[in-house]
Every structure is written in C-alpha cells, then in structure tokens.
Write a structure and sequence with these properties.
Helices cover 42% and strands 21% of the residues. It is α+β, with helices and mostly antiparallel strands and 442 residues long. The strands form two sheets. Strands 1, 2, 3, 4, 5, 6 and 7 form a seven-stranded antiparallel sheet that branches. Helix 5 packs parallel to helix 7 (307-327) and helix 9 (349-361) packs antiparallel against helix 10. The chain starts with a helix and ends with a helix. The model is unreliable at 1-12 and 431-442 (pLDDT under 50).
C-alpha cells in the first residue's frame, strides 16, 4: 500500500480488515461480512448472479452504485466479465449476505485504472449484497431444460462435437437416489444405446476437458413422459447428473477432411444410421444422417465421377432424416428435410409422400392433399397416396362443416343482437308516445 493510500485510509476510518480470500493469500481481496446470508449453498462458476453494490475509493469517494440506478446488476460468475475481486468475493457469498470487499489494484483495475472516476493503482471498496444465483442454461433455445453448475472448471477452450470419442465418469440421480454410476468410453451420438438421456450428450458438448459439473435435466432432455423402467424412473422426472469429462478426441470436422474422406465416412455413418433406425433409435440415427449433410452439402471439389455418389448420399440422408423426424413426431423438421430432398430430385416419391405426411400432421390438409395428388400423378400405383388423399378430403370436409357451424352460430348471434337492438329502439319510441297520450288525457 502506498503512503497516500494509508493516509486516505486513516482519514476515512476504513479499516483494512477482513478475511483474505485470495488463493495466494497475498491480501489482494479482504472480505468482511456485514450481514449473514441464509442456507449453505454458494454460487458456482458459470452461475448467473444478481447483486446490488456500492463502490468507493479509499478516501470515501463514490464512483458507482447499482442502488442509485435502482436496478440489480447481474453477471456470470468466474467468466471474467467483472474484476477478479468480484469473481473471488461473490463466489464465497450466500443469498441475502452483505459483505465489504477491499480490493487491491491487481484484483481491480490495475495500473491503468478506469478513468475518469478510478485513478491508476487504486484500492477499491465495494459493499455487495447477493440476492439470487442460478445455474447456466446450456440449451440452444434457453428453455431451462438443461442447467449447468460447474464444480471444477475444465482446461482449454475446445469442446467435444458430434461423433467425438469421450471418456467420462458420471452419476445420475433422481429425487435424491442414485440410479446410474459408471465410467464410460463412447462416441457422442451413441449415448442412447448406453441408456443415457439425450441431455447428457448435450451437456458433454458444452464441457471442457477435465471439467466436472452438475446438470439438472428436465424431462424433455431426460426420459420424457414415459420414464425408464430399467432404472425405475417415472415419467416426467427431473434428473441430476454429475459428469466429469476426463478426456475427449474431437471427430474430424468437414474442413479437416478431403473429398475422398468425406465420401468414405459418409458411407460408414449411413450404415451406422440405418442400424440405429432398425433398432428404433431414431434420434441416434438422425445424428449420423446429419453428419452426411454437413460433410457433403457444400462440397465443390469432388473427384471426377464421384458427384453422383455424393448426390445419392445427400438425397438418402435427407430422406432418412425426414423418416426419423416423422417417427419422432417432429413434422416441421420432416418438412424441411423433404424440401431439401426435393431440391435434389423434384419428383422423388418418398420426399413428396413424407412431406404430405408432415403437412397432414401440421393440419395443413389442403397442402398435404396436393402432395399426395402429385405422388399419384407421378406414381399411379401408389395406393397409400390414394388413401391419404381420401383422409385429407375427409379432414377438409370436416373442417368446412365446422367452419359452417361456427359462422352460422356467429351470424345467428349477430341476427339476434340486431333484432334485440331493433326491439329496444321500438320500445323506446313506443314508450315516448304513451307518455304524450297520457299527458293529453290528463
């Protein structure tokens, strides 16, 4: 501490006391609890934390306050989004706790400061109150389906991709009871065959090597509404998985392979996908078919004479994906893959038929009928398409009847309302004349 800082400290009576919470025990961050928090749980790396704070220099000059703004401040703990002192200090706090953090420059803004309010080499004082913390949502749409709490941070920046070979230790529990405890080596995409819910594989794709995390997995990414009889898991159960990613080897990305390798690997994963499909493992099958699309979709440097082979593989991949998504009851994804297949072959019987099925599931019966009629036009012997056209006609007719009843009721209500309004007007006019006549008689 400089002589100037000592003077400031003495002048303002800010005691340089508290617990040294730095790993080095170098006095860089001193913490003094002003108000105890509740419970025993502490925030973990990656958690989103919500705080109020007031920041002052050692001479008591305020430079920032969330309380004055009237809005809590939030950040992801341990991700370097705030000064080091905060990442260290808030990680030691409980909900409801208010603590004073005295932060040396090397744990704050260093020799540069943060002009104009924070001078170079400034020791800062923060009063921080922790209101809430919650785990990190790692789902693509942030739907709350998989929440991560990092126990031990991993190393490096790379993460496993689909098809990566992973080595993991995992422990699955439900309502406090452990149901699955194993060490496994497998390729991402094969988890379902090992009894793992899809959420575990999604979780692994967000992890770094050496990381250990706790994942809270909602039914959508767990065992769904059917549960798992082997593990005695009921339907709609929320799972907890503690996972350690010991090591992994990434699968080759598209840009790491030449054209010949892409074709060779596409044939291999197509066979793998077909085997999964035969076993009823439609999600795993779809992962394999997606890899073919990613490898070949934009490939422009194929060896001479191999274009047709790549074209056939892409077409098969989209058709098979469409079938997987039909089985998984995901009609919009079925529709998208049928469209892609039809871009490659605009008269493909399977693509037209499956797109019709997707549209039927989406209750777009007119469009579905058009696809089935197109199938019949191109392939007159397709009896299934004829049956589907009849089903579409039936649904369209039922919809028309329903609409007719709806509109008839609506018009009836309008007519009744108009009649009532006319009657009310008549009553008003009639009532006025009677008063005049009575007045005349009187």
């Amino acid at each position: 501490m400089t002589a100037e800082e000592v003077t400031n400290e003495e002048q303002n009576n800010i005691p340089m006391e508290g617990e040294d919470i730095t790993q080095k025990k170098d006095g860089g961050v001193l913490k003094l609890v002003k108000q105890e928090g509740t419970g025993t749980e502490l925030p973990m790396t990656g958690d989103k934390v919500f705080v109020h704070y007031v920041g002052t220099l050692l001479d008591g000059t305020p430079f920032d306050s969330s309380r004055e703004r009237g809005e809590k401040f939030s950040f992801e703990l341990g991700k370097g989004q705030v000064i080091k002192a905060w990442d260290l200090g808030v990680a030691t706090m409980k909900v409801g706790e208010i603590s004073q953090l005295i932060c040396k420059p090397e744990y704050a803004y260093g020799s540069a400061g943060s002009p104009p309010k924070i001078p170079p080499n400034a020791t800062l004082v923060f009063q921080v109150e922790l209101f809430e913390f919650r785990g990190e949502d790692i789902t693509e749409g942030e739907d709350g389906g998989i929440i991560r709490r990092i126990i031990t941070k991993g190393e490096g920046y790379t993460k496993p991709n689909e098809g990566a070979a992973v080595e993991v230790c995992l422990e699955g529990s439900c309502e406090g009871k452990v149901f699955d405890k194993r060490e496994l080596k497998f390729e991402l995409g094969d988890g379902e065959s090992l009894g793992l819910p899809s959420g575990v594989e999604k979780a692994l794709m967000a992890m770094e090597q050496g990381e250990e995390s706790l994942f809270i997995i909602k039914p959508k990414y767990g065992y769904g509404n059917t549960g798992n009889s082997k593990y005695n898991i009921p339907g709609e159960a929320t799972l907890q998985y503690k996972v350690k990613l010991t090591t992994f080897e990434k699968a080759k990305e598209s840009w790491e392979m030449n054209s010949a390798e892409k074709l060779e690997q596409s044939i291999i994963v197509k066979e793998k996908g077909t085997q999964y499909f035969k076993e009823g493992k439609y999600r795993q099958a779809s992962v394999q078919y997606k890899r073919i699309v990613s490898w070949l979709e934009n490939e422009s440097s194929l060896p001479e004479g191999e274009e047709q082979k790549a074209h056939s593989l892409r077409l098969a991949a989209h058709l098979n994906l469409a079938m997987c998504f039909l089985k998984l009851q995901e009609p919009s994804s079925t529709f998208d893959n049928c469209d892609k297949a039809l871009e490659l072959d605009d008269t493909n019987e399977k693509a037209l038929f499956r797109r019709g099925e997707a549209l039927f599931a989406m209750k777009e019966f007119d469009r579905a009928r058009a696809d089935f009629q197109r199938v019949i036009q191109l392939y007159p012997s397709n009896k299934a398409a004829k049956s589907q056209v009849a089903l579409c006609q039936k649904q369209i007719k039922e919809q028309h009847e329903k609409d007719k009843r709806l509109y008839a009721n609506m018009f009836q209500k309008f007519a009744e309302r108009d009649a009532k309004e006319e009657a009310d007007k008549g009553m008003e006019n009639g009532g006025g004349m009677e008063v005049e006549e009575n007045g005349g008689q009187e």
